[in-house]
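Final report, closing paragraph on structural work. Over the funding period we assembled a curated collection of sequence-structure pairs, and we close with a single example.
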Amino acid sequence: MSAYPAPLARLVQELSKLPGIGEKTAARLAFHMLKGKKDDVFNLADSIGKLRKEMGLCRICFGFSEVDPQSGETSVCIICRNPERDQQSICVVEEPSDLIAVERSQEFRGLYHVLHGTISPLDGIGPDALRIKELVARIKSEVVQEIIVATNPTMDGEATALYLSKVIKPLGVAVTRIARGLPMGGDLEYTDAVTLGKALEGRREI
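Its predicted structure, as stored:
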């Protein structure tokens, strides 16, 4: 039987589902909310409640973007609609969080494309499960000269990079891979901005 009153137990249980949050940390967060200002708690709950309703995927790069409250459709993200970005370079990443990590490095001023995963035969994930077809369509319809593959330095990330090179090179577009400034098995999301920036600077053709 839980030692917490039912409302508190529910909150602790839900917070415990978050990555990296165990029961003790969840309980500490819950107690903090109980002791904090009511307005702060209500604002937090309101933000969480609206998150899935007001966020969607950009129809161009498939990164996160806001939903238009009038049409209910996801708008083109601020990066894709920025005319000052380099339209000739597209950085391909696994997840939207990786896009944000590369942006933080402030070394890349081109566009992005989010695959939403990697090729993983062991998990039954093939190229068709990713946003690769959409990437090829962008290359064919835009003036793209370079695709920078910034998948994570893992076995699946490397396999995805090689597959992309095989598919894209025949289209007459240069395909480069970010340099080995990143540790093998690491994630872009948790890489510091300086290391990621150097990796972008030292990208190579694959």
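The chain has a mean pLDDT of 90. Helices lie at 6-15, 23-35, 38-54, 96-105, 132-141, 155-168, 193-201. We thank the funder for supporting this effort.
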